[in-house]
Write a structure and sequence with these properties.
The chain is of the alpha/beta class and 460 residues long. Strand 14, helix 12 and strand 15 (340-345) form a beta-alpha-beta unit. The chain has a six-stranded parallel sheet, sandwiched between helices. The protein has helices at residues 37-44, 80-92, 102-106, 108-112, 127-135, 185-190, 199-209, 227-237, 256-264, 279-284, 295-305, 323-335, 353-360, 389-403, 406-413, 422-437, and strands at 11-16, 20-21, 51-56, 70-74, 97-100, 117-120, 142-144, 168-171, 174-176, 194-196, 215-218, 244-248, 267-275, 309-316, 340-345, 448-449. Residues 1-5 have low confidence and may be disordered.
Length: 460
């Protein structure tokens, strides 16, 4: 018997798109399967009386024919093409789609063509309104937040049950970054601002998600953009006796109190974007502050003194980079004993000063590169000044191959910072071996599912 007095439950489907997939690809790239916290945030913002389903395109097939009232997709630049494929499958079945995320805010006109509603800005204040409007049958095309929301929502990780993610617990302490790096879409999205969640919320979440032997990854774009707040967090973490890692800017390495608190609170290592050893390149990318206090070498010496491992990232392709830049950078990374390192070409992301400059100078090879069917992951989408796009791509791969060679791993393994405990040395060996295996494994990955044969449905 149908209960006509009770309205049907609203059905929401949240989908996390993959970057891309080759024809015949059986298993997704393992290092890209961390828990998608944006999806868990949307789940937390969903009313309890709604029927909620979540599908991770990296791990499972999406049941497009399963009945639902609305599909929500968070879009990043690398996942945009796949997100539009997924949206088209649902829209072909007359299911409305709402899209948000970094790419939606930075490329609103493009994203709006592929969905019924678009969310611009952060979701905390907007997503409950989106759901309410759809439940009432009066959705809007655009939902915009010009104010920064209070970060008082804790992700609903129950949607991750039964899915095989990397054994690392992800927690957010803050959002944004106060620096204005030329290539960074984060500063464009947040307008170079930085805010923190209430400390008691963060600590409660850490206590709840921690697991024996697992690392906590604070996913902040720059954990120490606000040093005072970061120090407050670290002091509060000391009694919890956890192990954690995060990302920070180089200025962290020149504050001894911060470094001491990091070590005492359980920090095992930190990702720092050194980007370049060349002062002219750093100034062009608006990152001249990386030269402070003696630059990268002194920063690393300070971090080693406090027994903190470093994941150093370097980018190539700025106007002053030559063939010699690669050899010098890799030798520096090996000699300094970096725990791991990334050697990537710079990518002009939409909404960044770099992208605007490349377009105005007529240097884009694909525009927009993230939608071009010819583009593949790790291709160079622009004309470098000092070398061809093909040479830049090849030299990045060779830099990784040299850094993760057995000879380099052996040289770095004897550095005191990398063998300071059996735990650290064991992790060093395993992680470096995995990186050696994946030196070029992601190269050539299509953006979007290469086997998809549908037609994109776009608004007129």
């Amino acid at each position: 018997m149908v209960d006509f007095a009770r309205p049907p439950r609203f059905r929401l489907t949240i989908v996390h798109p993959c970057v891309g997939r080759r024809i015949g690809m059986k298993r997704y790239i393992r290092t890209w399967t961390m828990e998608p916290i944006p999806a868990a945030m949307l789940a937390a913002l969903t009313p309890r009386d709604a029927e909620l389903r979540f599908y991770d395109d990296r791990l499972e097939k999406i049941p497009y024919d399963e009945p639902t009232d609305l599909v929500a997709i968070s879009v990043e630049t690398y996942t945009a093409r796949r997100a539009y494929q997924i949206a088209s499958e649902f829209r072909r079945r007359r299911v409305p789609v709402v899209m948000g995320g970094f790419h939606a805010t930075l490329c609103p006109d493009e994203v709006a063509r592929h969905c019924e509603s678009i969310v611009l800005g952060e979701a905390e204040r907007l997503f409950p309104q989106v759901l309410d409007d759809y439940r009432r049958g009066r959705p809007q095309k655009t939902y915009r937040s010009d104010e920064r929301p209070v970060l008082d929502v804790t992700p609903d990780r129950s949607i991750f049950q039964g899915k095989r993610y990397l054994p690392m617990r992800l927690v957010e302490f803050s959002r944004g970054c106060r620096f204005r790096c030329d290539f960074c879409a984060i500063q464009s999205f947040f307008h170079a601002s930085h805010r923190h969640r209430p400390l008691d919320h963060v600590l409660e979440e850490v206590r709840r998600v921690r697991r024996p032997g697992q690392m906590i990854f604070f996913i902040d774009d720059n954990l120490t953009s606000g040093l005072n707040e970061a120090k407050e967090l670290m002091r509060a973490l000391i009694p919890l006796r956890i192990r954690w890692v995060s990302q920070a800017a180089i200025h962290t390495a020149f504050d001894d109190e911060t470094l001491d608190l990091m070590r005492r609170s359980g920090c095992q290592g930190i990702l720092i974007g050194f980007e370049s050893l060349d002062g002219a390149a750093l100034k062009q990318m608006n990152k001249g502050f990386n030269l402070m206090g003696g630059g990268a070498a002194q920063a690393l010496a300070n971090l080693r003194r406090h027994k903190l491992s470093v994941y150093g990232t370097f980018i190539f392709g700025y106007d002053h980079d030559t063939a010699a830049t690669f050899a010098e950078t890799v030798e520096f990374a090996i000699d300094q004993g970096l725990f791991i390192a990334a050697f990537n070409h710079v990518t002009p992301f939409p909404g960044t000063p770099l992208y605007s400059r490349m377009r105005s100078e007529g240097r884009m090879l694909f525009d927009p590169w993230w939608l071009d069917e010819r583009y593949r992951y790790n291709m160079i989408p622009f004309h470098p000044r000092q070398m061809s796009p093909e040479e830049l791509a090849a030299r990045c791969v060779e830099a990784r191959r040299r850094f993760y060679s057995w000879r380099s791993i052996a040289r770095r393994s004897v550095k005191p910072i990398n063998r300071r405990s059996p735990f650290v040395l064991g992790n060093f060996a395993v992680i470096n071996a995995l990186h050696q295996w994946d030196v070029s494994g992601r190269n050539g990955l299509p953006l979007g599912d290469e086997s998809w044969t549908g037609q994109l449905i776009e608004a007129q």
